[in-house]
Amino acid sequence: MILPPAFYERDTVAVAGDLLGCLLVHREAAGTTMGWIVETEAYLRDDPAAHSFRGETARNRAMFGPAGHAYVYRIYGLHTCVNIVTGQEGVGEAVLVRALEPVAGIELMRERRGTDDPLALCSGPGKLTQALGITMSLDRTSLSEGPLQVRSPGSLPGRRPEGWPGEVVQTTRVGITKAADLPLRFYLRGSRYVSRR
DNA sequence: GGTGAGATTATCT
DNA sequence: GATAATCTCACCG
């Protein structure tokens, strides 16, 4: 089932952990792509590494909007990353989706990524947006109603991500310079599809 | 298997 | 003008 807004209107760290094993789905004319979420990072209020830390701007406006909507941004001038807004509206917290295990639409992912290696299709925040065709046009769209959706574990009877249910590793976030010591990254220990172990 | 440089641009100082 | 929640490829060992 599609996760309702109430799922996201909770403690951001709890949501970041609970998103592991959920399904990220993008439905579009070119086809539907989807993958199990196997790695996330939490970005909190009063967190110097969060884009919302210095207040609302045109770029980070989604983070201050309703939970359960997407915050999509461009990084290093060329890659796109997707976050899920969490917690109370106006606070500015979100969860970065860092890696997926590909589930469907894999041929489309291969074309977009230019590789056949299943481990390289979605094993990073910039990779998975390229594989799923997630663009800036999805910024501030609802993940409960729009073309980009998140579905609960068990949405695909008989199928489950590698290493799930299983141990969730909590460790430090990747690629940041501020608050780099906080353990706000989560991934499935048994999955080969995470960005780094 | 690991490290480092370069790509490339929106955003904020 | 510097920075940035990344990726790829070249090069080294």
TrEMBL record:
Keyword rRNA processing: no
Record keyword Cell membrane present: no
EC nos: 3.2.2.-
Keyword field: DNA damage, DNA repair, Glycosidase, Hydrolase
Family matches, as CDD domains: AAG
Top enzyme category: hydrolase
Pfam families in the record: Pur_DNA_glyco
UniProt xrefs under Gene3D superfamilies: Methylpurine-DNA glycosylase (MPG)
Region called Disordered, residue ranges: 145-164
One function term, GO molecular function aspect: hydrolase activity, acting on glycosyl bonds
PANTHER family registered for this protein in UniProt: DNA-3-METHYLADENINE GLYCOSYLASE
Family of this protein: Belongs to the DNA glycosylase MPG family.
Protein name as catalogued: Putative 3-methyladenine DNA glycosylase
